[in-house]
Amino acid sequence: MKKYYYFAIPVIITIAAVYYMTTPHENKQDELTPQMLVQNGSPILGDPNAKITIVEFGDYQCTYCHLFHENTKDALLQQYVDTGKVNFVFRDFPLNGPDSVLAAEGSYCADDQGKYWQYHDELYKNWGGEKTGWVNQNSLDKFATTVGLDLDKFDKCMSDKKYEQKVLDNQKFGEKIGIDATPSFIIFSSKNATKLVGAQPISVFQQVLDKFQNS
Fold it and tell me: The pTM is what?
């Protein structure tokens, strides 16, 4: 299978500058904090006390998000997250419409049963393109069964739309801080922050993370 990557040049910025990239703000209380970046997203993957955090804004139907998951994510986790150097958070940015929102809702309904990341991975494992109809209640139920969820509880969560607003709020937050493409990554420590866009290869993450660790 031929691999395609969308490249963007890493930009070194301050945490507050992420928020000021696209819109002027006069109120200092509007400044972005690390806590604001991770709240309302997925469970933290890795050591919560790691000195570096990666926040991915993604869409379960997004082609380049799928490529990142297939080609880069495992190496990133093995080299940096599993070793305690970095933690990782996923936040929803459903660019591809209602089906993407539905898939994201499913991930949080799975989280109610302690299986957010298993469900997250199952969605990308079964990726079927953008706006092709592969995301529907039947397919989401199938994924729930595969990862061992109680299907009755899962279906009630979905029918109640328990997490719809959370997903939409994540998208609004992303738009507010200048996210306009998926996947987009904000990598930050106490000293630095970098925004990456696209299905970057592991070498690009290594360049940024190794620099952060040595700073």
Answer: 0.87
